[in-house]
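Q: what sequence does this backbone want?
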């Protein structure tokens, strides 16, 4: 009998165990703990579906149901990119017609696929043992329940990790297609264009360390003449974002409406340094209020993942490190409020943690602390307490 490969069994095990914890804790917390009255109920006939459809989920359901709308100066659903809600709308008839159930099925299926690709990519970059640790650390990360909610995290992770897996295998066409879909999922998906292009440059002899080497440039231009079609293929990646920009121009006359509407959420670009200083000042001031804990875990997460960037550079190279750094700096330029959710898709950082997990004590400490916090955060989330 043929043995089932580890790239399937280990991600499947990590998925199954972590989802059992999340769904079990969610049902327990929803049953045992009080919830404030007056919140939106996603599906009045299914408490379970409603449990995983909160906060930003409302916008994805709204887009899938009624399409896009834009009101200048107000929170508008054009802030959210189209691929995930469009998939909900297209596939709902084939999955029973319930948009929310479709969204949850898509999110969970995408997360399982993302874990498989993450295992394969980590095995390619490191080894199979590190790959196993990486998928478990991500699956049990404190906010990994967003992968099983009506959010884009699982779609974005699946497409971005898949893009880089094919890029590292020098399969530029599937890398470009997945990269284009990533750019249609979230605004930072456009970074995959630079990351794939960086990988192409490396594969064709270009090196940052040999920037002033005449021989390196001679070889590079020779490869460019031979493989220019590959660069052309990679250049389709931005089309995912460009298509959405053209849609916004055509329908609202505001091609960058997804950026403009961010101000309605109180997001004003003051720079990540100012945001971090303000957060730390508030934390050490001793002023305890409703948002103090949220500020604590998001600021701590931001600082922790920023501290990982140099180690990502050392272990995986400058491309991955710059990708992680930009993904941290762009959202934190206005606020830290959802950083602990945004870091979920920073797969190079989790690959690094999986590598560090060679030390059994480190791996045990990370996995234990992640699991405990995951249970706590699920209990908060299902009761409409803001986590990220």
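A:
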């Amino acid at each position: 009998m043929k043995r089932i490969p580890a790239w399937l069994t280990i991600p499947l095990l990590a998925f199954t165990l972590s989802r059992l914890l999340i769904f079990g804790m969610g049902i327990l917390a929803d049953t045992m703990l009080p919830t404030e009255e007056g919140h939106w109920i996603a599906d009045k006939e299914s408490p379970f579906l409603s449990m995983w459809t909160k906060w930003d989920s409302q916008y994805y359901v709204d887009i899938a149901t009624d399409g896009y709308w834009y009101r200048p100066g107000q929170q508008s659903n054009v802030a959210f990119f189209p691929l995930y809600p469009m998939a909900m709308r297209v596939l709902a008839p084939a999955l029973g017609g319930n948009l929310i159930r479709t969204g949850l099925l898509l999110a969970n299926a995408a997360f399982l696929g993302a874990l498989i690709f993450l295992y394969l990519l980590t095995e390619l970059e490191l080894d199979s043992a590190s790959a196993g640790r990486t998928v478990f650390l991500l699956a049990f990360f404190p906010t990994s329940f967003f992968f099983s909610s009506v959010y884009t995290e699982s779609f974005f992770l699946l497409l971005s990790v898949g893009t880089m897996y094919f890029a590292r295998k020098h399969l530029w066409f599937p890398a470009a297609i997945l990269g284009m879909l990533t750019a249609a999922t979230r605004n930072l998906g456009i970074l995959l264009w630079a990351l794939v292009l960086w990988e192409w440059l490396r594969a064709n002899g270009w090196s940052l360390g040999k920037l002033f080497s005449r021989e390196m440039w001679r070889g590079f231009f020779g490869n460019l003449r031979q493989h220019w079609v590959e660069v052309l293929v990679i250049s389709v990646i931005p089309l995912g974002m460009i298509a959405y920009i053209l849609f916004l121009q055509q329908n609202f006359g505001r091609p960058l409406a997804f950026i403009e509407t961010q101000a309605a959420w109180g997001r004003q670009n003051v720079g990540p340094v100012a945001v971090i200083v303000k957060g730390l000042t508030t934390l050490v001031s001793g002023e305890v209020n409703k948002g103090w804990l949220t500020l604590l875990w998001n600021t701590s997460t931001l600082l922790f993942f920023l501290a990982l960037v140099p180690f990502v550079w050392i272990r995986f190279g400058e491309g991955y490190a710059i990708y992680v750094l930009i993904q941290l700096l762009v959202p934190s330029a206005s606020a830290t409020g959802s950083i602990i959710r945004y870091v979920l898709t920073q797969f190079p950082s989790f690959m690094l943690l999986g590598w560090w997990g060679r030390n059994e004590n480190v791996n045990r400490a990370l996995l234990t602390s992640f699991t405990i916090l995951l249970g706590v955060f699920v209990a908060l989330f299902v009761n409409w307490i803001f986590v990220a």
